[in-house]
Amino acid sequence: MIIQPLDEVNLDIESRSELDLTQVGLDRYVNHPSTEIVMVAWQTNDGPMEQWDLSEGAPPARLIALLKNRAIRKWAFNAQFERVMFEKLWGIPQQYESWRCTQALAYMMGFFGTLDQVGQAADIPSDMAKLKEGKALINLFSKPQKITQANPHIWRDWTTNPVEWRRFCAYNRQDVVAE
Questions:
Q1: pTM reported for the whole predicted model
Q2: pLDDT at 52 over 70
């Protein structure tokens, strides 16, 4: 009997909300009407990196099918965040048994901290590490902006900051690599 390995998908999402996740916690964050998923990067097995972002409209059917398939293991750093966001915002049924958390795995191996801190402690090569500009990009795209005469937009995106948005997309894809 040949046992086929289960399909696996490594993924990461970026979101935005009027609430600060670190201040209010996941439950309040995900249930706030302003909270939305703005992009998802994923890689199935050793296949090509794929990505969806809000500029493309609705999420692709292939991504939704991956998320709904109980036979596919879904890996993410702090997987509960992705799992709950997909369930509450996209209606993907909770499937605890198909989710795996690289953060929990890292902690079981004696590492601690953020993805960046774990990567540094594990001496991950720089081409596989989390991008350093991530915090600035998150502040630009994931948090509401103060409206001023020079900045009439509460939310920044691909229309207001196309160059930075492309960097934000790259940051999202690189998180999948780092994870």
A1: 0.84
A2: yes
Residue 5: what pLDDT? Answer: 52
**Which residue reads 């966001």 in tokens?**
85
What DSSP assignment string belongs to the chain?
-PPPPPPEEEEEEEEE-SS-HHHHHHHHHHHSTT-EEEEEEEEETTS-EEEEEGGG-SPPHHHHHHHH-TTSEEEETTHHHHHHHHHHHH-PPP-GGGEEEHHHHHHHTT--SSHHHHHHHTT--GGGSPPTTHHHHHHHHTSPPPP-SS---SS--TTT-HHHHHHHHHHHHHHHHH-
Grade residue 79 by pLDDT with cuts at 50, 70 and 90: confident
